[in-house]
Design brief:
about 200 residues, mainly alpha, 9 helices, single chain, about 65% helix, elongated
């Protein structure tokens, strides 16, 4: 490879650190060189924070990041900035040496870091929100049904004792229904201009 290409820069980096390409992990070395993270333990954790933000949410990446974050709480702010930089960079989790080795490293870096992510509607819903709404509806309704027979008791203690949980169940079920209806509403797209 000629000087300045990503392939040459990866080779120089590996030789400098007395390392060899490990089959199946070639793209990992590509990311170190392309993004400018050194091959040290701290920079490995920073790379994982960047890649998590960039959309590479794999178990090994998450475990390396969590382990490093637990051991280095004084670098949490740095990890956070790396994560944010990853969210704003061009997605590179699927890049391979075979595809990009012949390209100029500086050109690729510019393409990665000058990337403008497409504007999407602000995410309002997720599976967690839906799960919470359905759980609230189910649990609130179950609580109301449990209390219902006691509301027809001749004992005032039973009526009062079941009345408050019945109302609480109704409030919880209603909150779940309101959350579910808010999730189903179409949301306006947010842009930088605010329009």
């Amino acid at each position: 490879m000629s000087k300045g290409t990503l392939g040459k820069d990866i080779a120089v980096c590996l030789i400098r650190h007395n390392l060899h390409l490990v089959p199946g992990y070639e793209s990992h070395d590509l990311k170190h060189v392309l993004l400018g993270f050194q091959m040290t333990p701290v920079h490995e954790i920073r790379l994982q924070a960047f890649m998590l933000g960039n959309g590479n949410r794999t178990i090994p990446s998450l475990l390396i990041f969590l382990f490093g974050a637990l051991l280095l709480p004084d670098l949490w702010r740095t990890f956070y900035h790396d994560f944010i930089n990853g969210t704003q960079a061009k997605p590179i989790s699927t890049w391979t040496i075979e595809d990009y080795a012949h390209c100029q490293t500086s050109t690729l870096r510019e393409a990665v870091f000058s990337y403008a992510p497409p504007l999407h509607p602000m995410p309002v819903t997720s599976w967690i929100t839906k799960f919470g709404a359905y759980t609230a509806i189910f649990m609130g309704t179950a609580g109301m049904l449990f209390c219902l027979p006691f509301l027809f008791s001749s004992s005032m203690e039973d009526i009062v004792g079941a009345g408050f949980p019945f109302v609480g169940g109704a409030i919880i079920a209603s909150a779940g229904l309101i959350a579910l209806s808010n999730i189903s509403k179409p949301q306006p797209a947010f842009t930088l201009s605010g329009k």
